[in-house]
Amino acid sequence: MNKFCGTGVALVTPFGSGxxxxxxxxxxxxxxxxxxxxxxxxxxxxTGESATLTKEEKKQIWEFSASVVSKRVPxxxxxxxxxxxxxxxxxxxxxxxxxxxxxxxxxxxxxxNQEGIYQHYKMVAEASALPxxxxxxxxxxxxxxxxxxxxxxxxxxxxxxxxxxxxxxxDQFNAIxxxxxxxxxxxxxxxxxxxxxxxxxxxxxxxxxGNACPGEFSTMVRLALEGKYEEARSLHYQMVxxxxxxxxxxxxxxxxxxxxxxxxxxxxxxxxxxxxxxxVREAIRAELLKLx
Length: 292
What we know:
Blueprint (H helix, E strand, L loop, with lengths): L5 E5 L12 H13 L4 E4 L11 H15 L5 E4 L5 H9 L8 E5 L8 H14 L4 E5 L1 H4 L5 H10 L3 E6 L4 H10 L5 E4 L5 H7 L3 E4 L6 H12 L3 H18 L6 H9 L16 H14 L1
Parallel strand pairs: 1-2, 1-8, 2-3, 3-4, 4-5, 5-6, 6-7, 7-8
Helix pairs in contact: 1-2, 3-4, 4-6, 6-7, 8-9, 9-10, 10-12, 11-12
């Protein structure tokens, strides 16, 4: 499970001016992450705007990303949805080459109860040839996977190796961390609270902000995991204003604005997402200059 300790980065999907996937920019971004010390990468999570991509585009991005990464770091594929049978089909048909795990978001929009969430993940885990990481993000899905359900899945489904938790509920974090199996990973899904979560026992983070500052963020995480909290805290506070700005006018719009200012990719998004407003863009640019 050490493959998924530390800093994972949920990669954005760069687009060109015509809305097509910019593979040259994606290659630059992947190499930027690896060269700056991130521990693993996630292809086509929420930050990758996966909801607006076709099945064929997803297949091409996954294949291209695996080719560029070339096993230099572990690689995770984001595969989720609100139809269990469609997710199972996608998992069963997934080309495993170059990938180490699947990150699967809690079913959204349908608002299933806890038994429905449990049965969904049980079926997906049984179908997957790769280890599965749960992803609880009620702010996006409209439903919270409780600590009790997370622990039940962790106990019953051996192919489920961890959870990316983005509920923002510290009572829930405490309950999972207190009673989870020793080898079950608790991964932060919120950049601003990654440092305190590591102090509580989290294994690391799957980060949005890491796209733009992989060196600084992964160093902060590494220091925290080593128990060097004073040094980690210093880096945390250097980045805290930037982190807030990157989410101020929508994500991944904020981090794409940062990446554009770093000449890594265009600021293009797919509707219904749009770029950040000019005030936020200038503030992001200023904070990046301070951080550098």
